[in-house]
Every structure is written in C-alpha cells, then in structure tokens.
Amino acid sequence: MPCCTDRFVLHTIDGAADLLIEELRAMSSVHSIRQLSAETVECAVDGPLDELVACALYFTVIGSGDAPLSWMRRFGRLERLPWSTNPVVAEVIVRLAKIRPGHHVLDPFCGTGTILLAARRRAPAAHIIGTDHDPRALAIATANGCHELAQAKADALPLQDGSVDRVVTNLPFGKQVGSHELNRTLYPAVLRELDRVLTPDGRAVLLTEDKRLLHNAIQRQRALKVVRQRLLRYNGATPTAYVLTRPR
C-alpha cells in the first residue's frame, strides 16, 4: 500500500472527534495529531496507510495520496435504504457499547445491517445478532454480509431472558420511519423487552432524535438508567446516543 509523509485532515461527525483522536493515538504510524474543529482532525502518517484505512471514524480525508483512504476502500459497497444508519454514526455508537470478545450483541432495528457490520469490525470475536420486522431490509442486510438475522418486532424478540450482553441500535426517529405517536407506545415496549433480554451487567446504546419521549419512557420504566449521553450532529440531524445500564 502507498506510503505517505504528508499531513491529512480527517472529517468526522461533530461529537465524535475525541473518539477519532483516541484511535489515532493508538496507531504506531500516526503522529502529530491535532483537533482543528468539532468535526476535523489533522494528523501525519509515516509509512504505509494500513492503520488509517482500517479506521472507520471519518467521512472524508484531505491530503496527498489519499486514494487508499476513500469511502469505498474503507466501507465497501453497501446496499442501503433511505433511512439506513450512516456508517460513521454506526461506528461511533458501537464504540459506546464497549463490546468485548464473546459478547452477544443485538441490534433489534437492524435494517440493512450497518450497525451489525460496524460491531463485527470492532469485535470480530463477538456474537452479532440482528432483528427487524421488514423482510426487505433483512434481505439487503444479508446481501451486505450480515449472517445471523431474524424477522421479528423489537418488542417481541425471539431471544431468551438474560441472553444479550450489548444492544446497539438506531431507534425509529418518527420521521422517515414510524411517527412520534407510534413511538409513544413503541419506546416503552422496547425498553421492557430490552430489560428482559439483557444480562444483569448488560449495556444498551440507543440513538434517537425523539429524545424527550425516550427520556420519559426510561424514567417511567426504571429498570435501566442513562449513564452517558452523546450528542451527534451530521447532515442536518442532531440525534443523541443514550447509554443505558441497570441501576446498581
């Protein structure tokens, strides 16, 4: 793979630059890392670009010899639907889940499989499971390389009690998919089901723009609590990722 001694400027999500910097610092070939803005990070690379190619936390890159860092080279040709999760967003919320080898990881709204693929890249030794009620989306997820899939509603999962270590999902915002009115019953029902399938030390990362509704549902349910929030800004959207665990 080509080598580079020039500097690169990486464009990521507003709200994820710290995660990108953390990964860059762990790369032996990357140095002189500097955050330029909420969305851009500058760095220099000595030697092959393999480590930077493997990083999936940025959209675009500016710098000489940047062809190996193209979107297609890093993510491949993913089949998508209009409401599919952005691949970089998927990478961000997967990192918030803190997946470990051997974990059973679930996306109950897996759609075309973007989050499942991000979880597999992040934790190849984890057991990745996807469910969705839409057979068309599941067919696309299969074409994208996802394997363990099931057609099911997120409030009636075909899983045993306490069988899931991590949940990472992009909830319906009530815009392109569903509605705010439907979310009034959907969100509480999904939280009850996650409470059922999560292990005692389980962790869930839920992304949504219907924030007040989710927050109120969590407060009423009380089986899971918010331990962290991360606001993301991209393409005019401003969803928040909520990290939930069981109260201690």
From TrEMBL:
Looking up Pfam families in the UniProt record yields: UPF0020
Q: Origin, by domain of life?
A: Bacteria
From the Swiss-Prot or TrEMBL record, what is one GO molecular function term? Answer: tRNA (guanine) methyltransferase activity
Query: Any idea which UniProt keywords this protein has?
Result: Methyltransferase, Transferase
Q: Name one GO biological process term.
A: tRNA methylation
Q: Does the keyword Nucleus apply?
A: no
The keyword Membrane is annotated on this UniProt entry:
no
Ribosomal RNA large subunit methyltransferase K/L-like methyltransferase domain: residues covered: 86-228
* Identification of the protein by name: RNA methylase family UPF0020
Gene source species: Kribbella rubisoli
